[in-house]
Amino acid sequence: MTSTDVQTELKDGILGILSYCINCRFCLPSCPRFEITSGEVSQGASGVTRSLYYAVKWGEEDKQALQELRDIVFGCTTCKSCEIACKSLSTGTKLLDAIEMGRELLIEMQVGPMPEQKKVLDSLLKNGNPYMVTARKRKEAVKALGLKEYTDQTEILLYLGCSTAVDEDVQNTVKALAKILDHAGVSYGILLDEACCGEPSLKMGEVGLFEMLSEKNIDLFKDNGVQSIVTLSPHCFETFSSKYPEADMQGIKVRHYTQLLYDLVQEKKLTFPNTVDKKVVYHDPCYLSKYQNVCEEPREVIKSIGGVELMEFKDNRADSLCCGGGGGRMWADFEAETNRLANIRVTEAVEKGAEVLVTACPWCFINMNDGVKVTNAADKLEVLSLAELCAMAL
Amino acid sequence: MANYPDYNPEDIQRELREILPEEAISKGLFERINNALDPYTSSDDIDRGMVPYAVVWPSSTEEVSQVMKYANTKNIPVFVRGSGTSLHGASKYRHSGIVLNVGRLKHFSIEKDNGYVEFGPGHRVLKVKQMLEEEGYFLPLVPGSIRVASIGGIISNNTSAHAVDSCIGKPRDYILGLQVVLPSGEVIETGTKSLRRPAGTDLTQYFVGGDGLLGVITGIRMQLVPMFASAYGVAYFHNELSSAKAVQRIYMEKAPMPLFMEYLDERVARMSFAIQNLPEPPGSLIMFHSIGQTEEEAVHKVNKLVEAISKEPVIEAKRITDMDEWHKIWLARESALPFICQGGKGVFGLSEIASSVRGLVDCMEDTINMDEGMPTLSKLGKPYIMGHLGALSLHPVYIFPADWSAEEKNKGIEEMFFKEAQINEKYGTCGGEWGQFAKRTPFYRKRYGDTVYGLVKDVKKVFDPNSILNPDVFRD
Ligand SMILES: Cc1cc2nc3c(=O)[nH]c(=O)nc-3n(C[C@H](O)[C@H](O)[C@H](O)COP(=O)(O)OP(=O)(O)OC[C@H]3O[C@@H](n4cnc5c(N)ncnc54)[C@H](O)[C@@H]3O)c2cc1C
Ligand code: SF4
Ligand code: SF4
User: Fold this and answer.
1) ipTM of the complex
2) Cα–Cα–Cα angle for B186, B189, B192, nearest 5°?
């Protein structure tokens, strides 16, 4: 297939999907990106897709216009709020499919991705991770964590994901999780050679690269006879569950670690002897709540810890305000933005009087921690992963 | 339509920068496109020639005034935009001009000791509702587009939306005064700061429901309405005509009119009850919400409605006491449109038919048979029908398959509006939502005659001699 054929197919696909949109704009108010830009319609939900629609329909070639389009299309956090709104209020348009195709198209046209994201894609190709760390260094860093390795006797593959492998703050989550799993007598192990699940490349529009990475992981799972995977990141969880070919993943149970903790609590294999006397607010990661409907499990786990007062954000569960990290945005800045979503979230948590903001996604964790620093809230609010909170009660 | 000089967009953008702060001007192609669209775009695309020169986002009346003065001097059309949700094409532009988006005109203050609230037109309706509710007040306008439509857009339309006019009236009945920028750029105040309404000529009434023809509303003063107690009811009917008869009966029996009385035909009710896990409804239904100062008063009103309805052949009419049941039924109403749309794998087109009380049963029958004689609608059969039956208004809905060509969808939508006009003309009505012009202009001329239409245009000329404000709202 030539690039022209690919482009034609993508353009037809985009117009086809968007033929379901009547432009009622019901999806716009729920778009977090719309929240942090100055209110321009093109910066949010159907404004993004309508921009794409007209660029395709008019065969836009003007360089400046295409760059404008790139910033609009790559600005989406892929949080899914727009699709949920459209499904419950309007025509059920698959905005995200169109946006993802739009990204693919802009890459084919050599307009996308965002300049900073190019390096990330290069790193995914060369190193198998988006953090510009060589595969060797990544492996050393993971080894240094001293986690059990997966063997043919192991029940659960703990899939670390890239942030856990390279970010020291995020590593505290897996250390805490290992402590919990040991305490509960769970058989788990890691694979030192895991590659990125491919989600960042998929969301940045490099579908070929995603396929390459997914094949690598599928081979790894098959070679090791993996039957049960628990992920640290909701993004890896969603990718394995919904984006890897069903046939290849048949017989492999995939869960996010919040679900595993919930199961352990329900089965009374995990109880918390110590209390944590803190006011805790739980931030729902989009890829857990909006994509996978995992909302109650983490809350039930938190509630099972004595002393914790669980609070809620104004927008919670499937209405949760995105932290801004999805869709390849961990590696890009956008001129149009006047605030950061994580700052809004942190400010609300502080105003609520929460002492701890708990989340269950490495990217939310990183963004919220940054938000605490930027808003000078370090003396009022601590950001913890769910695993860290649980480990405090052991 | 007036002729306007052609300008180079870059020149206009440069000149606008001299009168507005940089952040108040959007020059990007895609923002300009997005501000020129309205719903049903799928069947009525714009072309490159319709892209606005610029979108401006004034954040004060003074900035609006500057823009209008500038545009008036240069004879550039200005299109005022709330959220662009007008279903009758009032927010769709057909040639270049400046879009004035009111989205940043967002002041808000509740003056409890004066009994009114003042706000800018740029708030979304839901936001105003929430801010009022936090202080124990009710917003007396409730459109289906509440999450997205701007309060200024609603007031320009004077739409009572779901609410039953005979119960709470129209927005016009609550607006005490306005701040308006005339097309010349002059700023005027209308109305009063008293809860005692002006007797005699009150220019407020020209702008509320003025279809955006006469001036840009930049400030609104509205009477505060204290929150009330509520009670609820539902009635199921063997067929559509019996439900229309029941509503006639309510008016004839002088039963106390509810705040809402919503209708779902049997097909729609079945589908939407299923999504809410409600038992299958035995027929078409009306659901109603009565209000009173006390719960007893609200309950009394619901009981009176049940009593009146029960005088007609009805499967069941009852007061609902279980709030969970009411919420589910209400959710079924709210999700009905998206659900039939997604079930039908296409995009919805809805029109609005209003009836007289006496004509309601016949009007319902005509609405059911809306496809007759319409080649495109006939391919789709009978419309789904829902609407605000208590307010005597119906929304027939067609689902146009997504894979139909734009041309075919467009034909269907035009036929739908043609039939809407025909039926409204027959019953001597004119539609209680979405405004009077844009796609409805031909109907307006037919319904009221050229003399009346000429008068409206003359009034416009007095306010806007160069015809620069929202000129496309008239469709000559
Ligand atoms: C799915 C859907 C459901 C809907 N449900 C309802 C419903 O239940 N009831 C109902 O009545 N309507 C409904 N509408 C229609 C629409 O929401 C209303 O007509 C609303 O009044 C439009 O508000 P807007 O802010 O989008 O105005 P726009 O579409 O932006 O503007 C409408 C007109 O008002 C003018 N205007 C806007 N703001 C100002 C201002 N500040 N000063 C002067 N002129 C101004 C514009 O120039 C334009 O001519 C629905 C629409 C959709 C898409
Ligand atoms: S809610 Fe759906 S139909 Fe409406 S504008 Fe958004 S995507 Fe389009
Ligand atoms: S996925 Fe989220 S950020 Fe992207 S357009 Fe939809 S609502 Fe906005």
Assistant:
1) 0.96
2) 170
